[in-house]
């Protein structure tokens, strides 16, 4: 099943999610409306709300509560992007200027805070302590992951295990929450809830690993951000970590200095090291393993088009080019 067909399964619900987001972003503060609308209109893959909708449907949920939950998930994600772009001093996302590039860092941070707090207001309105607990834990873990990543920046001695801990916290945790709450909404047994949570964690990990690959493969237009951003920021992602571990002394020295100093002055040499050590192939193999682990978690669910869509998304995560 292709991504377009997957989206068609919940097309009406995704429109309802967008309407829900727009309605809850309204504020008496004009800047919040301007910046919030800019972020929502910038598009993006909307994978996390898509996963929330599909997981609920795959678990047999037949009401409309998943609409609000998917909107909450997207608001939390958008808040993290606003803060990320400030921390990374990013100027481009999704082929558009970042909010901080247009309105400044102060406005981007504060509107990010607004999105977080609005998301929690919406959680309280749901009246479910179980869902509030899952999303509060996820938001806290994401913040920890951001700090862990900051500690790893410009550190060439970052290990693969340390990096995997970062992406489990920073990226995969919200995928996990998105899929777990589908089972919670549907009132499914604990075993199914945990299986859906594990699905989201593994799928989110696979997605981030392919993002790491694309930073050294795709064009800026394909990625919607500047190629080499991770290297420029001194972020030791898995392609770099593996190339350092497997390269010769000269290659290790080049990568070590690139991570320590940031910037793209020796990008060609770094790319040569990544290519010659098989670093991209290794990272893709780890992503495929995570995708397979994700798909295997769904054996607890009855067959349905929604289950098939969740399985297909694990393939989409590792085969995508942007």
From TrEMBL:
The keyword Magnesium applies. Its cofactor is Mg(2+). Pfam families: polyprenyl_synt. The keyword Nuclease does not apply. Coiled coil: none annotated. Transmembrane segments: none annotated. GO terms for biological process: isoprenoid biosynthetic process. It comes from the Bacteria. Keywords: Magnesium, Metal-binding, Transferase. It catalyses: 5 isopentenyl diphosphate + (2E,6E)-farnesyl diphosphate = all-trans-octaprenyl diphosphate + 5 diphosphate. Its EC number is 2.5.1.90. It is an enzyme of class 2 (transferase). GO terms for molecular function: all-trans-octaprenyl-diphosphate synthase activity; metal ion binding. PANTHER family: ALL TRANS-POLYPRENYL-DIPHOSPHATE SYNTHASE PDSS1, GERANYLGERANYL PYROPHOSPHATE SYNTHASE. NCBIfam families: PRK10888.1. Supplies octaprenyl diphosphate, the precursor for the side chain of the isoprenoid quinones ubiquinone and menaquinone. Belongs to the FPP/GGPP synthase family. This is Octaprenyl diphosphate synthase. It comes from Acidihalobacter aeolianus.
